[in-house]
Amino acid sequence: MVKEKDRKKIKKILLTLVKTSEGLWVREIARETGIAKSTVHYYIDKVINEIIENIGVKDKSGRYFGVRIIRLKPKIRDTIEKEGLKKVYKFLKISKNSA
What we know:
This protein is of the alpha+beta class. Helix content is 57%, strand content 18%.
């Protein structure tokens, strides 16, 4: 379950990502949201990873290095633009509980 404090950070990240279909670097997301880069990394990798696409190069251990572009999956982007974040929050809650 997503805490209220966390929901505010998720909202900032998602609303920043919805602004562009091309995606953003993690550093750009951090700068635009005012959230620490390490915290943005955490939310991207652990909380919203199922609704985003990561574009970049991975090393042998599966970790990204160099430039990493983050963007919302097209259907998620459409859902946010048409219906807001409520459905996305619901999906994130359900998907994490079923894991």
